[in-house]
Design brief:
Elements (H helix, E strand, L loop, with lengths): L13 H17 L8 H14 L41 E2 H18 L7 H18 L5 E6 L2 H5 L14 E5 L5 H17 L5 H20 L4 H4 L1 H4 L10 H15 L2 H10 L18 H13 L7 H14 L9 E2 L5 E2 L6 H21 L3 E3 L2 E3 L1 H16 L23 H4 L16 H5 L30 H4 L3 H16 L2
Antiparallel strand pairs: 1-2, 2-3, 4-5, 6-7
């Protein structure tokens, strides 16, 4: 699951960049507006997926019926209640870092695109609350954040349903002596972003989220360090912090500024812009790297004409957009023959959805300001950026060389053998007897389709830049779904369901 950026290949000649850029514009101008995708249906399913990832006591309105209660004693060994939250992917561990990022991006999806969600808005809000209820539990003790429940090594040695798991449920925490500014910063960002979602819906809950976000941020900033150093044996190589903790501190401060409008967060951002490396790795955005998200989010203030002191962030956001444009892209960003953004690493769809979300969000901010992005003598208009984001969404939904949807349950052709324990093993209803650690191996190795449909799950995607995809459980980087692939896709689908 953890990934590292690949070395940059030799720079492509500028003339070739220019030709490819112009060719892209030509192709986009010819590409018809697709009438084949049902974005409303895809939106509904992308949100439903989160119910299939729930841990803990399931509510009466649970719609993914083949899932049952699980991990009901999480936190007991530490004397705390850590039930609830989400399994991040196809295993049974609760990793706090990607779960917090998932919650932040679900919240941002609602903040920017909730008005386009129609009847699905209530389900999207429920998905956020399932995350924040858990994040409130893990931050209930001042000066402590529980960042993981479950031993990943013992879990990955088994193939068990979450309802059956008998592996170690160790609760791992950070504190003043064992810092983790990255995961604590992301947790603060998630709580702050969610406080905006609930501001008018549940004011007291919103205040609780914001107050907790402030406390967790102060802890993260006071006790600086990466959680990979404090808990390397538990979190690596799964969700190792490769990028450093500095971006999460700045990311949290930006969300706290947006949620509270307090001047001290503005001053913190300006004071720490260089120290916390706001302009680094401009074409990365995901659970481990927040730089592009920071720049895009702050730039909205600049484009609205009320925060010119943040103009350097807008410069960085413009650079980010230009780095993604096919033909003049950064060497670390490739496009497959079928038109998919491809970055070396694994679970490529996490890059596709997160980067596309930023492109779409920024295009909206530009539209309202009637501005374009200058890219080396050319310009990227909001309309062009929307087309670029839409192209990625359409690829995911089936407009690709294989003619298959990468979202389970959407369309007539989608992955059947996803790397997901609960989906691949018989449900408790179909097989009430316990299935032990190694007894599940035969289901993992079976060539048969998964018996339980994890509707809305988007898998990791093509295995390389050639658009090839192995529909096989052992190819986990390609066939495993994650919550942080789906979270930004919710916002994208909401927008395109209203603006097809």
């Amino acid at each position: 699951m953890a990934r590292k950026a690949c070395p940059s290949p030799a720079a492509i000649p500028a003339t070739l960049h220019a030709f490819r850029f112009l060719f892209l514009l030509f192709l986009l101008s010819l590409r018809p507006i697709s009438a084949d995708q049902d974005y409303h249906d895809a939106l509904r399913k992308s949100i439903l997926f989160f119910e299939g990832q729930r841990s803990g006591k399931l509510p009466p309105d649970q719609r993914v019926r083949w899932r049952k209660d699980s991990a009901l004693h999480d936190g007991a060994t530490a004397g705390v209640d850590l039930t609830g939250g989400y399994y991040d992917a196809g295993d049974n561990i609760k990793f706090g870092f990607p779960m917090a990022f998932t919650t932040t991006l679900l919240s941002w999806s609602i903040i920017d695109f909730g008005k386009n969600m129609g009847p699905e808005l209530k389900n999207a809000v429920k998905a956020v609350k399932w995350g924040t209820d858990y994040l409130l539990k893990v931050t209930a003790v001042p000066g402590v954040v529980y960042v993981q429940v479950g031993d990943a090594f013992s879990d990955h040695n088994c193939w068990e349903r979450p309802e059956d798991m008998d592996t170690l449920r160790t609760a791992y925490k950070i504190d003043g002596s064992h810092p983790g500014s990255d995961v604590a910063g992301e947790t603060a960002a998630a709580l702050a972003a969610a406080s905006i979602v609930f501001r008018s819906r549940a004011p007291s809950y919103s205040r609780l989220l914001l107050d907790r976000a402030i406390e967790v941020f102060e802890f993260a900033d006071k006790h600086r360090g990466a959680y990979s150093g404090s808990l390397r044996f538990a979190v690596c190589p799964f969700y190792c912090d490769v990028n450093g903790y500095q971006d999460e501190l700045l990311w949290a401060a930006v969300w706290l500024h947006k949620a509270s409008r307090r001047r001290d967060y503005r001053e913190y951002i300006l004071r720490n812009e260089v120290v916390l490396r706001a302009g680094d790795t401009i074409n990365e955005f995901g659970w481990d790297n927040k730089h592009a998200g920071i720049n895009v989010l702050i730039s909205k203030e600049v484009l609205m004409g009320r925060a010119n002191y943040f103009k350097s962030f807008k410069f960085n956001a413009d650079e980010f957009i230009c780095s993604l444009m096919p033909g003049i892209a950064h060497p670390q960003v490739q496009y497959s023959p079928g038109g998919l953004i491809f970055k070396a690493g694994g679970s490529n769809m996490q890059h596709v959805t997160s980067l596309s979300f930023l492109v779409l969000a920024y295009s909206n901010y530009l539209s309202h300001a009637n501005q374009v992005v200058p890219c080396g003598g050319r310009s990227a208009s909001p309309a062009l950026l929307k087309q670029l984001a839409k192209r990625q969404v359409d690829y995911i939904l089936g407009d690709n060389p294989l003619g298959m949807s990468y979202m389970v349950g959407y369309g007539s052709h989608y992955p059947q053998r996803i790397h997901h324990r609960g989906s691949s093993l018989p449900s408790v209803e179909a097989h009430p007897a316990h299935i032990g650690c190694k007894a599940g191996s035969r289901y993992f190795l079976s060539p048969n389709p998964n018996p339980n449909l994890l509707v809305g799950a988007v898998v990791g995607g093509p295995m390389n830049s050639s658009d090839a995809f192995p529909d096989s459980r052992p190819f986990f980087q390609e066939s495993e779904p994650t919550t942080y692939i789906n979270a930004p896709l919710v916002g994208l689908l909401a927008f395109f369901s209203a603006h097809p």
